[in-house]
Design brief:
Length: 336
């Protein structure tokens, strides 16, 4: 099958290699000519993976979007949430045939508060697109590029399409499950980034496994409460795009969100990191969006409130941690 991957970052490159391994014809699209030349000439993506990772020689890249789309039946959208809408707008000006689109972004759009599938259906005319599939779950590109074992979900309200993507990607090291709960999978993928920042802050402040285990557990509760309010299925959060993605993002040094939190915790303040940071940390925007939504619907989310205070109100992590510990005591499962 002919597949286009839009985005030459870590995840787009790793997914492109996986598809090459599965015998597909893969083209990457990017806008950095130096990076494109590195992929085409050196068969490397040194900006993200250094010189240790050698890419398949038949994995090619281009910066011509019209050329990239021509003849491709599947398009993988491996771009940050902030670029998702603009990329779709760019695609629909040149696309000529109906294609399957696969989203990998994990976040919510600022200002509109919308999930990626909602943006997709707003922007892409039905005559050019089958129902969207989102590829989500515990999956660090740094491991997938090394062909280490990974399991994720292909989520869509149309199981016929998600099963096509399941077969497209699945192999001996990359296993894909299907899921129909778009709301749960997308909100889980976004919210876990916020909780991962908090996990990193705890580690940066010097707290141990006990504290982080409690945070992950209570963070999962906030994720479930928030997502089910909007119609998600509780069972989704017991799966790969829920607790699976939450655990790996909250515990791994590969996680940009965990790493961001760790640096904030070490400094006991967020201002320095926010001023100097140049990497994409999806959880920062997610915290801002979810905090305001929760305030509007009057949903209690103490961990999200605490992270928001650290990131946007200049509250020291050391102070907010003790405020959380001295909240009124309660039952863990009051409805049980």
């Amino acid at each position: 099958m002919k597949v286009l991957v839009i985005g030459t970052g870590t995840w787009g490159t790793a997914l492109g290699q996986t598809l090459i391994d599965n015998g597909h014809d893969v083209l990457l699209y990017g806008n950095d000519q130096k990076q494109i030349d590195d992929i085409n000439i050196n068969h490397q993506n040194q900006y993200y993976f250094g010189k240790d990772v050698q890419l398949p020689i038949n994995l090619k890249a281009t910066n011509d979007i019209a050329e990239a789309l021509d003849g491709r039946s599947v398009v993988i959208l491996s771009v940050p949430t902030t670029a998702f809408r603009s990329v779709l707008q760019q695609i629909k000006t040149v696309v000529k045939t109906k294609k399957i689109y696969v989203n990998t972004a994990k976040g919510l759009e600022k200002n509109t508060n919308k999930r990626m599938s909602e943006i997709f259906y707003e922007e892409m005319p039905e005559k050019y697109a089958y129902p969207l599939v989102s590829l989500l779950g515990p999956s660090h590109a740094e491991e997938v590029i090394k062909r280490l074992l990974t399991a994720i979900t292909a989520t869509s309200h149309d199981l016929r399409i998600s099963r096509k993507i399941q077969k497209l990607f699945s192999n001996q090291y990359f296993r894909v499950y299907t899921n129909k709960d778009e709301i749960g999978a997308e909100l889980g993928a976004a919210l876990k980034n916020a909780i991962a920042i908090a996990s990193g802050i705890l580690a940066g402040c010097g707290y141990g496994d006990n504290a982080r285990a409690a945070l992950i557990t209570r963070g999962l509760k906030e994720m479930v409460d928030f997502a089910t309010y909007f119609g998600a299925q509780r069972s989704t959060f017991m799966g790969l795009s829920g607790i699976g993605d939450l655990v790996v993002t909250c515990t791994s040094l590969h996680s940009r969100n965990f790493t961001a939190g760790f640096k904030i915790g070490q400094n006991d303040e967020a201002a320095t990191f926010l001023a100097e940071n140049k990497m994409t940390v999806e959880g920062i925007k997610t915290v801002e969006v979810v905090y305001h939504i929760a305030q509007n619907i009057k949903l209690e989310m103490p961990i999200i409130n605490a992270i928001y205070a650290v990131l946007f109100e200049n509250v020291k992590p050391s102070k907010i941690i003790f405020q959380l510990m001295f909240r009124p005591l309660k039952d863990e499962n009051p409805q049980a």
